[in-house]
């Protein structure tokens, strides 16, 4: 890998992240203090479990769609077989969504961007999965503490996605080669920013992401058993394809 290749790889991943990020940091900075009123919180809390799950699943699927677009522009991702691309997205897209959402976490009032405003954990009460919600908030807190730049988040997101240890890959070797080039890109960016110490913290974050996403799958299984009709006929097809 000559330095030029690595620079080009970083540039295309950063560009793809920017073009598929759904909201820009400065855009949401302006909304940081737009909170839900007592009445609006009451409305969310009076939704039934399946209604709130469906409401969230639709928004989550929107966010996942943008991650699929991001993946398609990562050099090397498109060289992988269709099956391997799907296998990586199946396990990695939710993780990238969580990394992206963490950018907009307001650590001063513990709120996440949701439905156009900033919501505390109480807004999600009717999901009946307080442990998952608390874990997502904790993860977002941890990510904010690292104060990553958008370029670092772009490379980290690509590395989260291109993971040769994922289950059921056809050509693990090929995924390993793409993963190694993205790793080189991330270390190159961190070296340039004089922040190599972040690397092991980012690998720790990846371990937390994996446990967070298996908790999400566990809750989804619980939800689908309790509300089969909603899960099978009212959830967006992409959500079912990737998570069910
Ligand atoms: C991701 C691209 S972005 O531009 O950053 C962006 C783009 C769009 C938004 C707006 C948005 O859809 N926010 C959502 N917030 C949460 C949420 C919910 C509970 C706690 C914390 C955040 C959504 C979820 O559905 C969710 C997310 C993670 C785990 C679990 C769930 C609940 C599901 C499984 C029932 S959707 C925010 C940020």
Give the helices and strands, then pairings.
Layout lengths: L2 H17 L5 H5 L8 H8 L3 H24 L9 H21 L9 E3 L2 E3 L10 H17 L3 H12 L10 H21 L5 H29 L1 H7 L2 H7 L1
Antiparallel strand pairs: 1-2
Helix pairs in contact: 1-7, 1-8, 4-5, 5-6, 5-7, 5-9, 6-9, 7-8, 9-10
- How large is the share of residues in beta strands? under 5%
Number of separate strands: 2
Strand and helix order: HHHHHEEHHHHHH
Inertia-based shape: globular
Q: Please tell me how large the radius of gyration is.
A: 18 Å
Distance between the termini: 39 Å
Helix content: 55-70%
Q: If helices are DSSP runs of H or I spanning 4 or more residues, what is the number of helices?
A: 11
Described by its quaternary structure, the protein is single chain
Whole-number average pLDDT? 95
User: Biggest sheet, strands in spatial order?
Assistant: 1-2
Low-confidence stretches: none
Q: What small molecules are bound in this structure?
A: the ligand CCS(=O)(=O)c1ccc(CC(=O)Nc2nc(-c3ccccc3)c(C(=O)c3ccccc3CC(C)C)s2)cc1
- Structural class, by secondary structure, is mainly alpha
Instruction: Tell me about the largest β-sheet.
Output: 2 strands, antiparallel
């Amino acid at each position: 890998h000559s330095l030029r290749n690595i620079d080009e790889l970083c540039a295309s991943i950063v560009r793809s992240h920017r073009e598929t990020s759904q909201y820009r940091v400065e855009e949401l900075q302006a909304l940081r203090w737009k909170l839900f009123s007592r009445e609006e919180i009451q409305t969310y809390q009076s939704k039934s479990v399946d209604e709130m799950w469906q409401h969230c699943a639709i928004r989550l699927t929107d966010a996942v769609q943008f991650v699929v677009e991001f993946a398609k522009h990562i050099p090397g991702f498109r060289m992988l077989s269709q099956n391997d691309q799907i296998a990586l997205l199946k396990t990695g897209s939710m993780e990238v969504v969580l990394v992206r959402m963490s950018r907009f976490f307001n650590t001063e009032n513990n709120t996440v961007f949701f439905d156009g405003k900033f919501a505390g954990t109480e807004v999600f009460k009717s999901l009946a999965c307080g442990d998952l919600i608390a874990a997502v908030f904790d993860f977002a807190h941890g990510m904010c503490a690292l104060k990553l730049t958008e370029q670092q988040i772009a490379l980290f997101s690509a590395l989260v996605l291109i993971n040769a240890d994922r289950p059921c890959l056809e050509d693990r070797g090929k995924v390993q080669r793409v993963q190694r080039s993205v790793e080189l890109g991330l270390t190159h960016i961190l070296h340039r920013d004089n922040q190599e110490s972040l690397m092991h913290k980012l690998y720790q974050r990846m371990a937390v992401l994996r446990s967070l996403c298996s908790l999400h799958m566990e809750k989804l299984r619980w939800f689908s058993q309790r509300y089969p009709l909603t899960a099978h006929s009212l959830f967006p097809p992409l959500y079912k394809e990737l998570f069910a």
